[in-house]
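Quick log. Single chain, no ligands specified.
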Amino acid sequence: MGAAENTLEPRTLKRKVGLLAAVLSGTGVIVGAGIYALIGETAARAGNAAWMGFLLSAGIATLTGISYARLGKRIPKDSPEFQYVRAGMGFRAGFVAGWLMLWADVISTAAVSLGFGGYLQDLIGVPLVLAALGLLAALAFVAWLGIRESVALVMAMSVIELCGLVIVIIIGVPHWGEQPLLEAPKGVPGLWSAAALIFFAYLGFDELGNLAEEMKNPEKDLPRAVLFSVGISALLYVLVAVSAVSLVGWQVLSSTSAPLASAVEGVLGEKGRLALSLIALFATANTVLLLMVSVSRSFYGMAQSGALPPALGRLGRRHTPWASIVLVWVAASLFLLIGNISTVAQVTNFTVLTAFAMVNLSLLLLLRQPTGTAGRPGLWQQGRDLAQPVLGAASCLWLMAFVGWRALFFGLVFLAAGVIIARWAARRPPRNGAPG
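-> predicted structure:
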């Protein structure tokens, strides 16, 4: 009996994710529902210069992505916003950052599921909410099966959704120059408004930190995966935006609920529109699966650190955080009532931009800490190293000014709730070096 007990090992997350899988996962969650669903609204705000909105957002995402990469080398753990901000600003601030990202991801999961439901309803008439509920249930099961199964499905769907974007680019290239690509009817404010909206389409590089404890070599591969994912996604977005407006112009692009399908219809006909709609189903499903996997790891990571109830930190026999997966599934199902993906995108943007600003600030504070032996202050990092997180935080705050009052209101509600709950969490008995 005693010998049998000694052979039992505690359940832990398995390190099975390599660099290629991480890059495909990061690119897959970035290049998802955003580009397929929001490019029309982006064109409505920025005109034919919609590609500039994608470029502006890419710059801001890259600045923060570098901070994630630098912090990931220091702290390769799940629930990155919580872990990173806690390291530089303390437990309560870390909790607030983690809290904002948790619920931003949950609401985004619901919104993108509704996007899937909308496409499926258009194709075969299934009720929108029923289709979204079915998708959430199916992908929650996949997430429970294991990280290897989830990543395998993600890789397959990522290839399909990327092929859809490549099709748009290839079809559009011969038409480049047919539309004035600098036409921005709402001027510079319209460009920044478009950038604030489309920032939603870049969310995903931050999710890679949630795979840190399942990566084979996180200290080396996590930073590279973050930067590769942002760079590949930005290149694709700009090329797709240029091609889409070149094919039909911003007026047509902004007046349809299936913008990319409408863009190719003029060249490929109704069959081309159908093909892009089917690809959009894979794109939205891919985003939902990646969000469910990553946000469940965030709940797990915060529970393991004592910031959330310990039940959420339990692993099942398949070495997956089953309790956290169930919570994400149920909560996202309830949030399906929100409905409008554009509105939810802006709410999501406010919460994540707040958390991103905190991550950048945390890196700045960590870089300013003395190095060397205890009691002997070391030299500060060079000015260029400090400038990057400063620019990252400032750019996040700047973009928040363009999200709109509804997003501001709901974002502040989430922020206030996080501050209140952080005070409670900080009083809990310490666990794994968390509060106390």
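Confidence is low (pLDDT under 50) at residues 1-9, 372-381, 432-436.
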